[in-house]
Amino acid sequence: MANIGQGIDRVDGRLKVTGQARYAAEFAVPGVVHAVLVNSTIGAGAITGFDLTAAQAMPGVLAIITPDNAPKLQIKQQPVHAPLLQDRDVHFNGQHIAVVVADTLEQADAAASLIRVRYRRDEPVTSMDAVLGRAYTPKNFRNGARPADSRRGDPDSAFDNATVKVDASYITPIEHHNPMEPHATIARWDGNRLTVWTATQGISSAQQTLASLFGIDQADVHVICPYVGGGFGCKGNTWPPATLAAMAAKVVGKPVKLAVTRAQMFTSNGYRPRTVQKLRFAADEQGHLVSMRHDGFSQMSQPALGEFSEPVGLATEMLYACPNVAVTHRLVATHASLPTYMRAPGLASGNFALESAIDELAVALRQDPLEFRLRNYAEQEPHQNRPFASKALRECYSQGAEAFGWSRRSHEPRSMRDGNVLIGWGMATSTYPTHRMPAAVRVRVGANGTALVQVGTQDLGTGTYTVMSQIAADELGIPVERIQFELGDSAFPHAPVSGGSMTVASVGPAVKAACEAVRAKLQADPGASLPELLARHNMEFVEGTSEAKPGDEEKHYAMHAFGAQFAEVRIDADLGEIRVSRFVGAFDAGRVMNAKTARSQLIGGIVYGLGMALLEETHVDGESGRIVNANIAEYLVPVNADVPDIQTIIVPNDELISNPLGAKGIGELPMVGVAAAVANAVYHATGVRVRKVPIRIEDLLA
Ligand code: MOS
To answer: How many whole angstroms separate alpha carbon 430 and alpha carbon 355?
Structure first.
């Protein structure tokens, strides 16, 4: 009964399409009252006073919480990811500066609109480009796991001595995640115990953060989150709205619901920071890379709010066999909120620069871009000289190229036309590291042939419920329909944040191990089913638990997923209008758990990449620091008409070194390289090299 790999329908699909799946803001908590956030309207400075008289006189108002009367929180550890009404400083436009609580949402909203704030205004730094010279080295790059800079060989002299060179800067903009479900929290205090229904990618970290801020035991914080309407990274940290909801509930002594507005999603929960990346690459005349230097600058908030670095150089270190490589990461402080992880952090932005520069070198060498990449194929991980646990990138290249028809590409730019339409073909490599963290699972199998599996993980809409049910079904020999899989409750055994594409690799092995523990308890002989064995032992149920964690494989192997992205663009020769007309992505994501949810992830990731290539950009007013397109009408994302036929290919790979399930992670991989593939296709169509995204008509008409 092999369920793993089958493209079965989502086990929670019916609940979702019938509206029965309950999201954070939808829980019916008796007596709940409503909170709204008030945000700063200046970019930098301090609050000098509030006029609350009119707001306080409004019907239904229960409390107005400002830095002047907010309960003090126990801020022991930085970052707290944004100010929490603990002082009057203003670090960015849109910072939460007050919370209004009222009986109804409408009353809270109306009262909030009457609050008057006096400020001392400072001049905000709104553009990182203007202050690039003040860049600084991150203190805590990758949470201290490695230094911000790395080097092998002597890239500078290799560059100076080389004949074929690219020396260029690439720019990626601020992007916002905009999941369909905005952040929301319902908080209720029962004495000193806190319950929150909150939209999060990490119930354990929410539990930890809230316990620490309110100075209570972790066991006294109960986090509930059975469904998440998308995260993409913006629900990874526990951002201020969750904390402020709990604070408001404490102040009014009633359960409080706080759902942020779409506009507030632009300043409440991070964003993908703008990057400026300076690349200096060189090759010898045969087309072997001899030097790669990648200096990355990413936008930061004021340092007082914490630290986040966009790790743009990670793929540059490991993707190609090149003896001389240097990578640096720097931060540039501005008056913006704190940036954060966004789908394929580092890799998505970094690979736009890396894979554009690789294309530019291929052009300079007059070599086919795919052939150039194959010539520099890294047979083993070149930075630390370790073998890859597995790497089927060669197969991704060949199967992707075959499906796309790459061999029919003409080399010269502007050489493929269809009447007045310029046609361009571009490609890029994708990669994403395979992560795994410890996870624990509880399984209970009943004599009636059903199994209950519980783990404190999350399902962001990616299919966790479904694939974990498949894993349990296979291990227990019980049909998928008889597996009841529960997640999203901090009372369940501990699992890591759903980020870094690591949920299957982390939680899957724990599910497998807990099921094995159940079987071991009954000393199952292979012939008998678990219900039969339970009956034989006269038992009503049997339970098994597991705590699964990575071994020392990371010491010996480099573990990465790979992919090859191929784009066709059609560009109106007079108007510059760009259409992506075909896209093929071929991926080595290890062993795939569910062919249908995997394909959905791959297509979704490519669409996300198309957004980066052509549409997505957050615009900041230079004077006030205010985000001017804080809505999904003017923050452009791909709609159906922007998305062509997308062909996805899963290259088989059964390697089991990375983890016992062989899953390499599939959520982030498919968006890496898409923007470069499109930019490279735009160059091939037009002969214009655009070194920034999103690529706009005006970039082609210059
Ligand atoms: Mo993801 S950006 O690691 O949630």
So the answer is: 9
